[in-house]
């Protein structure tokens, strides 16, 4: 980028703009490539591909704009660390819930997912995480099973004779 | 006296035991999420949408609206007591409210916020009741071309009011529009961008997108730097205002209500702008501007009234045109659609009980909020002592259960992960998620009206410029962009959004 760099920070900012632009550009290209396989139609009767193509081209143009135009100073806060552990654990807990909710049942899956999620915060010890998981399992049972009657079984079929619907 | 009979119908609907009960639940949950920093009404409403499926439409919408304006009340409590805005719109309240609390005047500050909000909420609801019908009648004459232009205007206005880079906001809108095209095309039945996933035929799940972008991405943000929040005031005493206090807040409350009612109609977060505008107006009008920032009661009364008035009038574009003013309203549109109702000018004529029931419930809700907030303040102070490390697992779990139970489909839960990470990356790069959500919700409407307008005009794209109403709407949208890009306005806008003092 060709910006004035009187301190180190403007450089960092411009790099962020380039990354943001690149993400938009990749998404635009993916949509455009896929949209070419749909019928374009004509102006009077637009096909399903017409609007996605137009939007993808607009996004591509804006992506280049994002890369080139200098964004406001002060828009980004400087280097807060990326919480890799938190992102990984929370994502894992969500996938766990989606994949095993039905077989495990509401209470066990809430317990497990909460345990994993709680450990995303460095301030939670293992024991604290257990405590939160127990409390939240009980709370969710009362709210979602007794109160709202969700379809998930209380204890899932994987527990065999202990299954509770 | 058509208004009176309509309101009678509304109260008839809203005052059934079931509706009052769910209105109460709505404002209670709203206050709760407003009080707790880190959870906003956007994520909460997204989470509770699936639960409202089993309700009748009017009950569902009364509750969801209650969450929204309830959160505006709750946000001020947190702002005053711990100097952390529970909601973005109460950021200004924190400036003087927290100083009042430190001076031992937490009680009067909370009372001012509650009473100002109650007054503003009631007046703005009346404005909504008066202004909505004529606007809806105008909108009934809109053709496809006008609708298209109106939607474009709505999207463009949202940029000029959001902060941050204009070009990034534009890109986010277009990205939202693109995500909105995923799924089966209504006219031809072609499956678009489904990548072979059967689950995507009905489009990307709106709840997963909203929960991911606003709930989970926010959790990732908060995990970056974990801080302890401290409750500066553990006990609130003396909630009564003195005669002198009443004299001082009367003007700010009235002006705040007026400003908020007008700015609330604007798309794109008018309630945040309203509270900032009211604060700077009061500071300028005050005989003792040096008191601002050191605990001036006017600095609490004005902005609090303004943001509550705006919360109420932001329902105007939704109920009359079917256009959401901000992400929360976009979710409420989602709720309408899930209930099988297309929001727009027709709602008022076809479902008068629903339309007026929602409006009437707002008075009931505002009254319930005063009762909830003043005598029960001790309870809310207690809530603030719950640490975030306990809170966020609950948010993640509620999000999972909520999304899962829409269709009992694991795919919707996986989608939260995708949008949570995408949202987090984009927010870190300085792109706000709100325009994306607006684009996503309005995208299908935009496409439908564009295609219809093209068929009607026999493929002539100039139709948007030759029809006067459509052309002026587009011109207005263009003006918004130009204004947002002007350097002097940009500086002003930045100033407005930077906390003073």
Automatic annotation (TrEMBL), chain A:
The chain crosses the membrane at residues 18-38, 50-69, 89-119, 126-144. Pfam families: TctB (PF07331). Keywords: Membrane, Transmembrane, Transmembrane helix. The keyword Acetylation does not apply. The keyword Disulfide bond does not apply. Residues 19-153 form the DUF1468 domain. It comes from the Bacteria. InterPro entries: DUF1468. This is DUF1468 domain-containing protein.
UniProtKB/TrEMBL annotation, chain B:
Keywords: Membrane, Transmembrane, Transmembrane helix. It holds the Pfam family TctA. The keyword Transmembrane helix applies. Residues 21-438 form the DUF112 domain. The chain crosses the membrane at residues 20-39, 45-69, 109-132, 138-159, 166-183, 203-220, 315-341, 353-374, 386-407, 413-443, 464-486. This is DUF112 domain-containing protein.
């Amino acid at each position: 980028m060709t910006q004035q760099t009187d301190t180190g920070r403007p450089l960092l900012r411009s790099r962020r703009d380039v990354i943001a632009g690149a993400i938009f550009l990749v998404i635009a290209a993916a949509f455009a490539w896929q949209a070419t396989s749909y019928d374009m139609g004509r102006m009077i009767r637009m096909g399903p591909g017409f609007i996605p193509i137009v939007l993808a081209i607009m996004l591509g143009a804006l992506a280049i704009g994002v890369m080139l135009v200098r964004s406001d100073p002060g828009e980004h806060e400087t280097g807060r660390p990326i919480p890799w552990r938190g992102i990984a654990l929370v994502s894992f807990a969500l996938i766990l819930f989606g994949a095993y909710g039905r077989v495990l049942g509401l209470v066990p899956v809430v317990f497990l997912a909460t345990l994993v999620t709680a450990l995303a915060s460095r301030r939670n010890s293992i024991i604290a995480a257990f405590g939160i998981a127990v409390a939240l399992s009980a709370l969710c049972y009362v709210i979602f099973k007794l109160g709202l009657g969700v379809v998930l079984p209380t204890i899932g079929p994987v527990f065999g004779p202990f299954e509770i619907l | 006296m058509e208004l009176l009979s309509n309101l009678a119908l509304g109260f008839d609907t809203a005052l059934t035991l079931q509706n009052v009960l769910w209105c109460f639940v709505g404002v209670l949950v709203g206050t709760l999420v407003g009080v707790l920093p880190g959870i906003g009404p956007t994520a909460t409403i997204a989470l509770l949408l699936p639960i409202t499926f089993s309700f009748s439409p009017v009950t569902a919408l009364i509750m969801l609206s209650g969450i929204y304006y309830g959160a505006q009340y709750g946000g001020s409590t947190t702002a005053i007591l711990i100097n952390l805005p529970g909601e973005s719109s109460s950021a200004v309240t924190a400036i003087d409210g927290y100083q009042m609390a430190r001076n031992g005047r937490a009680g009067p500050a909370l009372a001012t916020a509650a009473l100002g909000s109650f007054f503003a909420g009631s007046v703005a609801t009346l404005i909504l009741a008066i202004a909505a019908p004529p606007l809806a009648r105008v909108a009934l004459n809109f053709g496809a071309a006008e609708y298209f232009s109106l939607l474009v205007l709505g999207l463009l206005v949202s940029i000029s009011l959001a902060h941050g880079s204009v070009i990034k906001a534009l890109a986010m809108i277009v990205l939202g529009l693109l995500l909105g095209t995923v799924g089966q095309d209504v006219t031809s039945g072609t499956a678009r961008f489904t990548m072979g996933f059967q689950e995507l035929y009905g489009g990307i799940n709106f709840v997963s997108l909203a929960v991911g972008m606003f709930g989970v991405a926010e959790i990732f943000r908060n995990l970056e730097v974990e801080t302890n929040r401290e409750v500066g005031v553990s006990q609130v005493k003396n909630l009564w205002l003195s005669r002198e206090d009443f004299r001082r807040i009367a003007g700010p409350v009235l002006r705040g209500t007026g400003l908020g009612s007008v700015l609330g109609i604007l798309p794109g977060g008018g309630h945040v702008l309203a509270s900032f505008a009211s604060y700077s107006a009061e500071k300028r009008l005050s005989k003792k501007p040096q008191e601002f920032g050191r605990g001036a009661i006017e600095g609490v009364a004005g902005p609090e009234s303004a943001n509550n008035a705006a919360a109420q009038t932001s329902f105007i574009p939704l109920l009359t045109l079917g256009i959401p003013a901000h992400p929360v309203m976009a979710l409420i549109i989602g709720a309408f659609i899930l209930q099988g109702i297309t929001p727009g000018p027709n709602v008022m004529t076809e479902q008068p009980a629903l339309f007026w029931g929602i409006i009437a419930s707002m008075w009931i809700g505002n009254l319930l909020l005063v009762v909830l907030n003043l005598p029960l303040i001790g309870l809310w102070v207690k809530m603030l002592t719950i640490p975030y490390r306990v809170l966020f697992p609950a948010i993640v779990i509620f999000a999972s259960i909520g999304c899962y139970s829409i269709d009992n489909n694991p795919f919707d839960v996986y989608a939260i992960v995708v949008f949570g990470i995408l949202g987090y990356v984009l927010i870190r790069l300085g792109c706000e998620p709100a325009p994306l959500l607006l684009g996503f919700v309005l995208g299908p409407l935009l496409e439908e009206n564009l295609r219809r307008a093209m068929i009607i005009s026999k493929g002539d794209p100039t139709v948007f410029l030759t029809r006067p109403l459509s052309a002026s709407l587009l011109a207005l949208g263009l003006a918004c962009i130009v204004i947002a890009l002007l350097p002097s306005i940009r500086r002003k806008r930045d100033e407005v959004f930077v906390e003073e003092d």
